[in-house]
Every structure is written in C-alpha cells, then in structure tokens.
C-alpha cells in the first residue's frame, strides 16, 4: 500500500496493531505484543513497539495512528475517564501522550466503538446504515455507527449496550444492576449461568462431568452444549433469548439495517444462540422493522478494533 | 412575524396548526379543527382549512408547511406506510398530495418525531444533545434528536420507543408483544393495570368507588392516585418503574443530555411517576451516565407536534 495509518487495539492483556490503507486494505493479521504489567508506561511502551512493527508494512510512511482503548473516554480531548480493566490508565491524557511518543497524529476511541466502526467500514456491516454492533467477549461491548459516524452521545459514552436491561429482576451484573444483557450473553454470564444451573450436582459428580468448577470457561460450556449437554444447551438458549430481547429493543430504537454480533462468544456459538435470538426478535418486532434488517456474525474477528481504529484515523486525516 | 411556515399536527380526532417564525416565535396556541370522519379526503380538507386559519398570523407569506402524521412513513418520499388510527391513509402519497392541495412545499414527519423535534427546538430539550423524547398519551410515542436531526434509521421507523421491552414476560401490549413500555406507561396501560389490580372487587363495590368500569380513564386513575387510592397509586408507581427501566436503557444507548417526557399522562402525573422512575434510573445507570442527564417534563404541551413540524419545514427551506 502507499500511505497508511496504523490501527491499534489495546486490550487487558496485549496490544494489536495493523497498517491499513485508505481503502481499508491491510496485509494479513494484526501484530500482537503482550502486556507484562498494567502500568501506564508499559501500555505506552508496548503501543510504541507494536506500531513500529506494523509500520514496516507501510514503507511510504504513516499518516496517523488510531488507538482503541478499553475505557470510557472523555472526547474530543481523548482522555481516559475510567478503564475498569487497566485502572492505571484512569485520568490519562491518552491522545496527547500517545501522539508525543509516536510522533504522529493520534485519535483514540473506546475499543467496542472502534470494533463497531471496523465492522461497519470493512466487515459484516459494510453498507448497512444504521449499524449496531454487539461484541460478546468476557463482557458485552457495543457500538453504533450512524451515517458513517460512531455515535458518541453527550460525553462519549453512548453504545454501552451490554448494560441494556433485558430482565429487570434478573441476574446480577458486574455493574451492580440486575438483568443486564451482559449478565446473560457474555463469557462471564455463561459460566455463571452454567454453574447455577448445575448447582444441584454434588461436587464430585460435577468434577467427573465437567472438571474443575473454578476453571470452567465459556468456550467449554459452548463445546458441551454443541455436544448435547442439556444444562449447557439451556444456558446458550437463554443467552440467545437475552440477545433477542436486546436486538428487538435496538430495532425499535434505530430501525437499523444491520446488527452485527462479534466477539469470541458469538464466533464460537452462533448456531447455539441463533434459534432463540431470532424467535425473540420475530415475536417482539413488527414485520416492517424486520424487513431489511440483517443480523450477521462479525467478519473481522479479533482485528475489528485495530482495523476500526485505523478507519477512524483515516477519517481524522480526511481521507476515508 | 415576517416570513412564516405553518406547522400541522394530524391526530386521530382533529388537526392543529400554528404559524411559526424562523426563530420559533409563534402567536399563542395552535388552531384546532375536528375530523368528522377518518377518510383521506376529510383529513386533506381539514388540513387545508386549518392551514388557511393559521396563515392569517403570517401576513408576509407562508414559506412551507410541515405536517406531523400519526403514521409510519416511508421517507424521504413522504408516503404513509401504516397509520394504525387512520387506516384510510395507508399508502397515501401524503407529501405530494398535501403540497398540491396547499400550494406550498410540504414536508411530512411521524407525529412523535415531530413532537420530539419541537421540544428539542423550542421546548424542554433546547440545547440538550442527544435528546430523547417519550410522549405518554393513549399509547407511548418516541423520537430522538441527534445533532439537531431527527433519527430516522433505515426506513424512517426509528424512535418507536413505546415498544422497548421492559418486562419480557410482562403484560400484553397492543402490538402483540409482551412487556412493552407502552403496556405500562400509556393511558391504555394505566387503565388496564388498574382494572387488573382491582379485579378482586365485586362489580357493585367497584362502581361505588370508581364509577363505570368501561368508562374509566387514565386521568381518573391519576386523580385517584393523587387522592390516596392505594390501587391507583400502585399503578402509577409501576408505570414509573417501567419508564425508569426504559430511560436507563436509553441512557446506555445514547448517553443523552436530555430525556423529555411529554404527552397528557406525563403532564398530569409527573409527581406520581417520578419517584420510581428515578429510583430505577439511579439503580441501573452508572454515575457517569447520570451526570449531565436532565430528565424533564415537556414544555410545549399539545402543540409540540405542530411546532416541531414547523421547525422541520424551516430546516427544509434552509432557514432554521
């Protein structure tokens, strides 16, 4: 590619980066480096490292860098307001300090918003407007792209779709409220629901069937469900129901052309989630809202955030 | 005023119109004429009549007419897709035929969206962006104003906030789904809930206390609640809870600066709805989303739709 920007995605355990052309072209998967600590200097250092690696794919120069951060951000100034998984970043003047360290213009964006933009720009949401993105990982993130722009709201915190209430008297969410989508349709929610559903089993029987209770993962529960385990199947059916309720809500709010479901959980359990998800959407929305609504799996996988951050950087320099 | 546009609001039983200057100035309340039938020709005729009346307040001429219609509209062409309360309008090329009959440029908009725009432009939502409007009347309408624009979505049907699911297994809504906001926080929902809550009373006792069961209105239930009737009080407390759940959902979606509650039910029962509404919002949203969020009663009353339609007509002619 000729000119490029670098898109970066900072996670709780590592940093990814990829060089992206103005047309969205990029050479293969993002580079990844692990974070050794969660200190601010470590995050800054690893971003600098991985941007330098990715820049090798951009021999004609880097125009700008876009960085997705796992944080509520104060925009447009680009400061970290609250980073639950990287608390040492709280209060960080991220855009300014990253720009100084990298020697390039830097825009920052919430990681789920960046992933939403990535899917809308180059992934499953291409050409779909409005597009709503739900990222099902450890938690549930969200982002909304309207007319080619990320919806930010008053202070940059729009699109927190994991905390849509789906069951007002339901399971307790990590945020403290009851019945959030995230309490059902995240990795954490799936594991919790499976442990609750099997709480009647004696410890030894659980261990024989499923192994160590404290090390159970959502991926294991998905594999159990796919292999016919009734409890695991129920857990995913309920997660699909919760997702369907939320997608129905979002359909009434946005009349979207696309709802894109990303994140590891969606990629690994689409067939388990889909039947109940679609049943709820069908029951809860009129035909006029379902017409022309595509509900799709994400296409960019773990690179959605880095690609989206790159797309936002291109917008910033006025070329995409 | 010098130049004016006329804003029109078509309801199920009558048509309102008001002349509005580019700065939002208007002389008093909207004119109103009743609809004698629900035929298309009657609607068209009464719009022409009431626009002529309102035009008397615009001696320097009418630049355009904005018309709010109680219908799903196909936009931008301005056709009626579905008008549940005026079914003879289904399929009507409203913008085109109204423009021909009135001899002015005409823009049409869904009535709740027009009311939302009115409150954002000249009412309680002035200066608040994003602004979410909920109109609590016979049903619950909604509208969202983002960056000074009504959110339309793919086909003009965004903002159908009355059908946000608040209790997935809850009361049956007129739309066929269970647990929509409208099933709790509309006039219809309040009457239904009160009749359910008092279903244990013998017919004669009900009649002594509350009068004819078949003629009960939401206004009566509000008066009963304000006077200390326990069943009526519970009904409004539950309506407030449902509203609080929905406002919490919308706060996570939009990070709004304002949520404006309009419609007769909000105007007449604010103090009954507020305590449980605010309790749910406080429980279900983080402080960062509540900061800078104003939840306010609407200011324009029954004229919100006509004023908003006028504002949209001004935008259309490029002057507001």
Question: What does it look like?
Answer:
- Two copies of one chain form a homodimer.
- Chain A has 320 residues and is of the alpha/beta class.
- In chain A, helix 3 crosses helix 11.
- Chain A has a five-stranded mixed sheet with strand order 3-2-1-4-7.
- In chain A, a hairpin with a 4-residue loop joins strand 5 and strand 6.
- The model of chain A has no long low-confidence stretch (mean pLDDT 95).
- At the A-B interface, helix 8 and helix 9 of A face helix 8 and helix 9 of B.
Distance between the termini of chain A: 15 Å
Assign an overall shape of chain A.
globular
For the secondary structure, the number of strands of chain A is 12
The largest interface is: A-B, 47 and 47 residues
Strand arrangement across the biggest beta sheet of chain A? 3-2-1-4-7
Summarize the structure.
Two copies of one chain form a homodimer. Chain A has 320 residues and is an alpha/beta fold. Chain A has eleven helices and twelve strands.
Lay out the secondary structure.
The structure is a homodimer of 320-residue chains.
Chain A: E1 4-10, E2 14-20, E3 31-34, H1 40-55, E4 62-69, E5 72-74, E6 79-82, H2 94-102, E7 106-110, H3 111-122, E8 131-136, E9 140-146, E10 149-150, H4 182-185, H5 187-197, H6 203-210, H7 218-226, H8 230-254, E11 258-262, H9 264-284, H10 287-290, E12 294-297, H11 304-316
Parallel strand pairs in A: 1-4, 4-7, 8-11, 11-12
Antiparallel strand pairs in A: 1-2, 2-3, 5-6, 8-9, 9-10
Helix pairs in contact in A: 1-2, 3-11, 5-8, 7-8, 7-9, 8-9
């Amino acid at each position: 590619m000729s000119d490029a920007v670098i898109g970066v995605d900072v996670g709780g355990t590592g940093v990814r980066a990829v060089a992206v052309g103005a047309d969205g072209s990029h050479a293969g998967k993002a580079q990844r480096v692990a974070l050794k600590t969660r200190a601010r200097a470590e995050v800054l250092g690893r971003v600098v490292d991985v941007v330098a690696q990715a820049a090798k794919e951009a021999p004609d120069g880097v125009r700008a860098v876009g960085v997705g951060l796992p944080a509520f951000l104060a925009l447009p100034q680009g400061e970290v307001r609250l980073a639950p998984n990287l608390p040492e970043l709280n209060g960080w003047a991220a855009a300014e300090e990253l720009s100084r360290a990298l020697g390039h213009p830097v825009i920052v964006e919430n990681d789920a918003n960046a992933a939403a933009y990535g899917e809308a720009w180059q992934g499953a949401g291409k050409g779909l407007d409005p597009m709503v993105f739900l990222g099902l990982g450890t938690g549930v993130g969200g982002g909304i792209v309207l007319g080619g722009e990320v919806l930010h709201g008053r202070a940059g915190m729009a699109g927190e779709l994991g905390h849509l209430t789906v069951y007002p008297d339901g399971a307790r969410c990590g945020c403290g409220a009851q019945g959030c989508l995230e309490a059902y349709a995240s990795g954490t929610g799936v594991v919790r629901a499976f442990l609750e559903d099997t709480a009647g089993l004696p410890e030894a029987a659980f261990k024989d069937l499923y192994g160590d209770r404290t090390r159970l993962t959502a991926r294991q529960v998905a594999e159990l469900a796919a292999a016919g385990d009734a409890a695991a199947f129920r857990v995913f059916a309920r997660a699909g129901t919760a997702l369907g309720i939320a997608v129905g809500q979002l359909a009434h709010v946005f009349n979207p052309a696309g709802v894109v479901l990303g994140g590891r959980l969606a990629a690994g359990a689409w067939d388990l989630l889909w039947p109940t998800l679609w049943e709820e959407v069908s029951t809860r929305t009129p035909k006029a809202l379902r017409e022309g609504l595509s509900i799709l799996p994400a296409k960019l996988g773990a690179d959605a955030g880095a690609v989206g951050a790159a797309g936002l950087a291109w917008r910033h320099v006025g070329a995409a």
